[in-house]
TrEMBL record:
GO terms for molecular function: cytokine receptor activity. This is Type I cytokine receptor cytokine-binding domain-containing protein. It is a single-pass type I membrane protein. Coiled coil: none annotated. The chain crosses the membrane at residues 347-369. Residues 1-25 form the signal peptide. It comes from Sphaeramia orbicularis (orbiculate cardinalfish). The lineage of its organism: Eukaryota, Metazoa, Chordata, Craniata, Vertebrata. The gene is il13ra2. It is found in: Membrane.
Amino acid sequence: MANTCGFTNQATLMLLLLSWRGMHCKVDPPEDLVITDLGHLGQLEIKWSPPASLINKTECPQQYQLEYFNTYKNRWTGIRTSERSYSAQFDLMKEVKVRVYTLLSGPCTSGSLVKSTNYTEVIQKPPATGVEGTAIKEFICVYHNMEYVTCNWKRSSKMPATAEQNLYYWHKGLEQTEECPKYIISNNIKIGCDFSGINLPDFSDITFCVNGSSPEGRLKPIYTTLQIQNHVKPQTVEKLDLQTDPGTELELQWKSPAGRVPAHCLEWEIEASREGLDGKNTLQQILTDEPELTLPIHDNERSCVRVRSKMNKYCADKYFWSDWSPPTCYPEMKSTLPEAEQDMVSVYAYMAVAIITTLALCVCVWAGLKARRSREVKKLNSVFTTLLDKNPAVADRGI
Ligand SMILES: *[C@@H]1O[C@H](CO)[C@@H](O)[C@H](O)[C@H]1NC(C)=O
Ligand SMILES: *[C@@H]1O[C@H](CO)[C@@H](O)[C@H](O)[C@H]1NC(C)=O
Ligand SMILES: *[C@@H]1O[C@H](CO)[C@@H](O)[C@H](O)[C@H]1NC(C)=O
């Protein structure tokens, strides 16, 4: 029987050899390690071949231990596989470092798993990286109420004014890298990308690249990989419903925003500011899982509350707070009245306005008429006076 380690089996030494051979087998590292960039923004394909010395050893199961420097976690990541290829995400702005070991088991090693002492390694320098200091800054993607994604960025100070920027993205569902479907433009400059209408998958790595060119050369590109469920910004709560148990409690209720965000994924923050008679303000923040809350109230105090939400830790690793709802206060004249009463108030207001307008009109018309009449009377008087002055006889005839 052929044997990797050059030993002949001997029944008497069998037991002893089993462990001894396992430790002293020399296993070669894999060969032809190649890293291929398929243009998927850093998703690289790693391929290798078994060592020539093991090609005909089909009776010995081979595995491989692949290690690569994970630039996102800043440490080595290792996996074991019986395949001869593997795909991993790399940051193309950094050095790519990959090592592969051979692992052998089966009759060739008497059953124990033996790892090659050496590894095959490939180190790739980052490709041409562009003019230093021209990379965009603060690249932020927001998944608005889980309905659509927008990504925004800021220019760096060294970026030439005439620089042209572009965004590309890729995820496993795409055959090839795509360009931004609709740029967000401000003052003729691209400042973001609007993905509304584009179905980006959640729980899947999506890589974005913003690169560009300028008369002075290529801009330094940036690469970002993220999962959009970690970038949700829930919709703003429009209205807080407020009920009071006079003098003791304030019962708050609000609606979870409609849309794709599951209600059980939301966590709420309520901010209550209380103003006492002395004008002193106290601020209180409360977190809750339910869209309701009861707050104690005190006499001679005015409370204003507002609410905002975020994804909880069971649904996402990261989050954005929603905007604050408009504040609702108690006591307050109008907004604390139930809707029916508010309607009555408006009706009364309209009636009052109507009555006042009518009265004012009447007064105007009356005043106008009166003015006209007195003018006519005056005119008549003056006609008479003139007549009488010119023709005293008329007066004598007693008209
Ligand atoms: C493997 O076996 C084939 C035939 O079975 C032979 O042609 C080849 O040279 C062998 N390769 C090695 C590396 O021993
Ligand atoms: C391991 O392999 C590298 C080449 O990949 C070689 O330079 C080095 O000498 C080897 N080390 C040992 C201990 O065999
Ligand atoms: C930007 O990246 C895309 C996608 O990788 C590439 O096709 C394009 O040529 C790059 N543009 C520049 C100016 O580097």
